[in-house]
Amino acid sequence: MSVGRPTNIGDIGLWADRSALHEACVLGRVLQVRALIQSGLCVNMMTADSVTPLHEASQRGHTMCARLLLEAGAQVEARNIDGSTPLCDACSAGHLDCAKLLLAHGAKVNLSIFTVSPLHEACLAGSLECVQLLIQAGANLEAHDCHLGTALHVACYGQHHDCAKVLLDAGANVNASKLHEMALHHAARTLSPDLIDLLVSYGGNVYARDNRGRTPRDYISPDTACAQRLLFYECQPLQMMQLCRLAVRHTVGPQRLDRLTELPLPSPVLQYLVSG
């Protein structure tokens, strides 16, 4: 049975308007979800924050509950008050099976411009498997959120090296800007030497200045290992073989990087071109 919406405007956004179906999806009670659907309860009912039962099931990884909802007509692209879809919620918690289910039912991997995308959410969570799934499904690597920047910014901010590597291998722009701030600025501020090495190896600009006129090295103490690394890269340009690799990848473009292995080149060279 659904609980009525609150009449006091001060109650909006609380739990007062949640339905039995919402609660069953939160708890993963598959039999109860099936019974409530069979009783005729609307599968697309929303809370005051526009949260649907499918959002709840997806966020908690209750794949069977999500499947029942989808088969009963749940809207796979429903947006909550923050603009998040069920796929965003599944990826934010690293629920791979649930993400696969939603994609199989038509969930969009790319949302409107300047909105947090499922790929952003997966990178925030450091969910490598979800990141790989979304890239395979055609996620826009340059999707930009006005607060977070690109998925690469997010991965570096969270120090998720593996996610950043997968994004870069897939062709993400290493020098994408967020208020003139590059992913390398994040790597420096979080004192992540491995990320600094990774970003520079993919062409990260150590001289880039943000909207405050600061380079990545300007954000850290000069006596740290990261500062010494950045100083080294400022004084020591990439080797010719590294520059050639970057030039080839840039010429091929991100849409065709997966076809690099078709080039008539020795296997070690192909491996170097693909992932360094």
TrEMBL record:
<keyword id="KW-0040">ANK repeat</keyword>
<dbReference type="InterPro" id="IPR051573">
    <property type="entry name" value="Ankyrin-SOCS_box_domain"/>
</dbReference>
<protein>
    <recommendedName>
        <fullName>SOCS box domain-containing protein</fullName>
    </recommendedName>
</protein>
<dbReference type="InterPro" id="IPR036770">
    <property type="entry name" value="Ankyrin_rpt-contain_sf"/>
</dbReference>
<comment type="similarity">
    <text>Belongs to the ankyrin SOCS box (ASB) family.</text>
</comment>
<dbReference type="InterPro" id="IPR002110">
    <property type="entry name" value="Ankyrin_rpt"/>
</dbReference>
<dbReference type="Pfam" id="PF13637">
    <property type="entry name" value="Ank_4"/>
</dbReference>
<feature type="repeat" description="ANK">
    <location>
        <begin position="179"/>
        <end position="211"/>
    </location>
</feature>
<feature type="repeat" description="ANK">
    <location>
        <begin position="49"/>
        <end position="81"/>
    </location>
</feature>
<feature type="repeat" description="ANK">
    <location>
        <begin position="82"/>
        <end position="110"/>
    </location>
</feature>
<feature type="domain" description="SOCS box">
    <location>
        <begin position="236"/>
        <end position="276"/>
    </location>
</feature>
<keyword id="KW-0677">Repeat</keyword>
<dbReference type="InterPro" id="IPR001496">
    <property type="entry name" value="SOCS_box"/>
</dbReference>
<dbReference type="Pfam" id="PF12796">
    <property type="entry name" value="Ank_2"/>
</dbReference>
<feature type="repeat" description="ANK">
    <location>
        <begin position="114"/>
        <end position="146"/>
    </location>
</feature>
<dbReference type="GO" id="GO:0016567">
    <property type="term" value="P:protein ubiquitination"/>
</dbReference>
<feature type="repeat" description="ANK">
    <location>
        <begin position="147"/>
        <end position="179"/>
    </location>
</feature>
<dbReference type="Pfam" id="PF07525">
    <property type="entry name" value="SOCS_box"/>
</dbReference>
<dbReference type="GO" id="GO:0045732">
    <property type="term" value="P:positive regulation of protein catabolic process"/>
</dbReference>
<comment type="pathway">
    <text>Protein modification; protein ubiquitination.</text>
</comment>
